Amino acid sequence: MAKRRAKNRNAAIEKSSPRGVVGAPAHDLVVALVGADSFLGRNLVGLLEEDPRVVRIVALDFRPPATAGAKTRYYDVDLTQPACEERMAEILAAERVSTLVHVAFLSSPSHSAAWTHEFESVGTMHVLHAARQVRVPKLVHWSQTLLYGARPENPNFLTENHGLNARTDTPFFLDKIEAESEVRHFGEASGAAVTVLRTAPILGPTVRNYLTRYLSHRLVPCLMGFDPLLQFVHEVDAVAAFKLAIDRDLPGTFNIVSDGVLPLSTVIRLAGRGTFPVPHTLAVPLVNALWLAQISEAPPGFVDHLKYLCVADGERAARVMGFRPTYSTREAVLDFATAQHLRDVRLLNEPAVG
Question: If you average pLDDT over residues 159-171, what whole number do you get?
């Protein structure tokens, strides 16, 4: 299994090279990453450090990424501060940034709704205003397929033309929808090449988010009478898609998903967990109480994703970007499950304290 994972990771990184992909390859890149110490940011910094076409990496975040090397220049930038806009504009101009990658978004819901709004929605406006001031020619922006919303009327596969209909009473969704709207206006007004990557929920052996915490329960909550189809993207494929968007000029919006879908019950079984069925009428008040008590990994707005379909179509990314996921949805679950099993064993074998 370890050899196979290594082979798949190498294949995914190889797919991020520009051969056979629409769009001219870039040379002498100066790449700035907003959110450089996030999961996506750290992995991208590591890949860019090894890319001979990249001459400089500009890391913007609260903390420097652990993967920073000789090419990386780190700047302490707080998106919640109004002064960050002018600071970022000065940095982008001084470093002569050719590609700006914005991945400064929370991968899990937060109880600090006001701070999250300032960080994601208002913070994105700061990023875009800075980019507009210095006329950054290219922007790569992280979004998520969750923003389509889980609804009973959804078609089997949602294309990029489908509206972002996630629940706006849930800040995790609303802030990201507002951010993507600002990015769309930026692209229309600035003439910059804007690439929006809407990733399916990211799953894998090292990523940590609401999904991995949900699937790490011994008994995973689900709703009685519902078994929706789910779709993920492996962490390696998500990073490879961003590297591909950096390597090539590929303006547009793309769903980044793994091949295949699985019923929630099958996902739980493959993860080596049991189900904890909850009556539909009790689900929302129960999740709300657990969320307020800071026990649940997600607020009530996520209950819809335990009921209805929210599966995206990856055909456009394959056709235009040349993106081909190395891991299927099933393989992503199994890779996560293997790593989680090792964590469970390690936890059981830890000596008791005291």
Answer: 97
Does 219 reside within a domain? Answer: no
Of 246, 152, 143, 244, residue with least CA distance to 202: 143
Q: What is the CATH number of the domain that holds 138?
A: 3.40.50.720
pLDDT-based confidence at residue 351 (cuts at 50, 70, 90) = low
For residue 252, pLDDT over 50 is answered with yes
Long-range contacts of 341-347, Cβ-Cβ distance < 8 Å, separation of 24 or more: 341/272, 343/216
The answer to whether residue 220 sits within a structural domain is: no
- Mean pLDDT estimate for the chain: 92
Burial (CB count within 10 angstroms: exposed 0-12, middle 13-18, buried 19+), residue 52: exposed
Domains contained in the chain, number? 1
Q: Over range 68-97, report the average pLDDT.
A: 96
The torsion angles phi and psi of 147, rounded to 5 degrees, stand at: -70, -15
Residue ranges making up the domain that contains 95 = 2-205+233-259+312-326
Instruction: Answer whether residue 345 is part of any domain.
Output: no
The tokens 């393989």 sit on which residue? Answer: 331
* Residue 296, phi then psi, degrees to nearest 5: -75, 150
